């Protein structure tokens, strides 16, 4: 299953790295709808926060290529 990592921006939008570029969405719901169109049910969303960024980075989560 594909994991799509996203973060909530201070101004209220959400950003996610798709196809090697940062994409902006008005909400998590909009991101989820977009990903559902692309991947069907074969994905999960995972929020990146200050608390989990280092752990995700060290695990290689951001080095597996763009989705």
Account of the 3D structure:
The mean pLDDT is 90. With 67 residues, the protein is α+β, with helices and mostly antiparallel strands. It is globular. The chain has two helices and four strands.
Structure described in brief:
By secondary structure, the chain is α+β, with helices and mostly antiparallel strands. The chain is 27% helix and 33% strand.
Set down the secondary structure blueprint.
Elements: E1 2-8, E2 14-18, E3 21-25, H1 28-39, E4 43-47, H2 53-58
Parallel strand pairs: 1-4
Antiparallel strand pairs: 1-2, 2-3
Q: In oligomeric terms, what are we looking at?
A: single chain
The largest sheet has its strands arranged as: 3-2-1-4
**Overall structural domain count:** 1
Q: Name the helix and strand elements from N-terminus to C-terminus, one letter apiece.
A: EEEHEH
Mean pLDDT: 90
- The helix-and-strand class reads alpha+beta
Distance between the termini: 11 Å
Query: Which percent bin holds the helix content?
Result: 25-40%
Low-confidence stretches: none
Structural Rg: 12 Å
């Amino acid at each position: 299953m594909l994991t799509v990592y996203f973060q909530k921006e201070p101004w209220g939008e959400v950003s996610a790295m798709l196809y090697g570029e940062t994409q902006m969405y008005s909400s998590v719901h909009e991101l989820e709808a977009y990903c559902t169109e692309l991947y069907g049910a074969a994905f999960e969303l995972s929020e990146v926060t200050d608390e989990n960024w280092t752990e995700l980075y060290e695990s290689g989560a951001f080095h597996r290529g763009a989705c």
